[in-house]
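Chain X:
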Amino acid sequence: MKIPPDDLPIYRVLTGPDDAKFCRRVSEALALGYVLHGSPSVTFNGENVIVAQAVIWPGHQ
């Protein structure tokens, strides 16, 4: 069974401000082969919109 590269975990939750940097992190995970797991979560911390997106390595759902 294929595993993620660079000793990355099978399941990851990416979090951060809703900005281009966060979108690039999710895009990079998808380019490595991860797939989205569930819907993104969004909250407001009083200053910024914060997002979270889970990704999982295929075959481990």
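Chain Y:
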Amino acid sequence: MVKICCIGAGYVGGPTMAVIALKCPSVEVVVVDISVPRITAWNSDQLPIYEPGLEDVVKQCRGRNLFFSTDVEQHVFEADIIFVSVNTPTKTRGLGAGKAADLTYWESAARMIADVVKSDKIVVEKSTVPVKTAEAIEKILTHNSKGINFQILSNPEFLAEGTAIQDLLKPDRVLIGGRETPEGQKAIQVLKDVYAQWVPEDRIITTNLWSAELSKLAANAFLAQRISSVNAMSALCEATGADVSQVSHAVGKDTRIGPKFLNASVGFGGSCFQKDILNLVYICECNGLTEVANYWKQVIDINDYQKNRFVNRVVSSMFNTVSGKKIAILGFAFKKDTGDTRETPAIDVCKGLLGDKARLSIYDPQVSEDQIQRDLTMKKFDWDHPLHLQPTSPTSVKQVSVVWDAYEATKDAHGVCILTEWDEFKTLDYQRIYNNMQKPAFVFDGRNIVNVDKLREIGFIVYSIGKPLDPWLKDMPAVA
């Protein structure tokens, strides 16, 4: 029986290993992590992450050929294939701070592997890592190998949160990079044989190590670039009276472009896009490619601009101040169908409103009060470090209340900001919400999910990103 061990039980390691266990009943899969609470949650009825379909997969396999354990060294010792899916946060200090990836956790994992194993291993990079990480890991392993042979493979994940299980069950591609040596090619084939049990062979792409590593950064950079492009257009649409939905629909009909990732919004979030682009920027700078670095940095700058523009629009619309006013925040996760709040635009929007002394009432169906308070008090990039290295649960932000009902959040509010595209926000009783709000009542739709005309009929003053402006807003100063 082939034995797989995955170091890291987070958003990538947990779902990926669960699907491998489901599709490869002859493979034993163990997910290990030093976090006792996280492993305890994986072994309980309340999994540590929310992902549609994940619970069913875990329950089918757990205890059969899928196991979760804190006994890291034992399972690394026993495994044939070791996936490493630890955090690669953006550095917060030192060389490359704010851009470069921090490989501390990767390096410590590599050193632990070298210390405990007694037989040849295939080590698979599953984390998003900067190009040439495999080379660094290879050096650590070979210099500490005691005669053991290691083959390093890059197998980047291309999961979208909210659809991760479907992405794993029916991937558009699986990418495996390895050394162009007989041993490297043999290792690639071993991993390819695992995926081939359910993925069509023409969807399993093999490359050299560096191409696989760079492909992950490139894919996320291209996707984020599309979002920033349509968001830049949304500002122009508001200035000219165009409708960004109509523009993106027309553009998306061009078969060379296609319709995906062309929805204007308050901005992109998640654990990958910003981190990967900053990483790409840093690699370009290190290689003297200043113009290329500046080009990709602009994708991040437009994303920040969009969030700032949204906050400014809220404040300027409401008589240029939100001080003391109750603002309802509907949605805090960075996208629907996930509880993940990493780099969610909601953090910057909420901080911007709090800076003008607003009182916030926040509702999200999947994000806990503790997580929201933590996000609003944490420094940038701290979220990506292990929980025990993050600041302890902070004192609550007094101007913030977290509620578990959209109607409670909006009661007596002066304005409503929709920051996550949860389906339930499309079907709320907006007449009831309007009746219970302060007047004039404002809706700021950061995800373009409401029926603007219907809300205006009810009496709301509505701002929807990239849509023709409400007559009320036309008299307000254009803000950056």
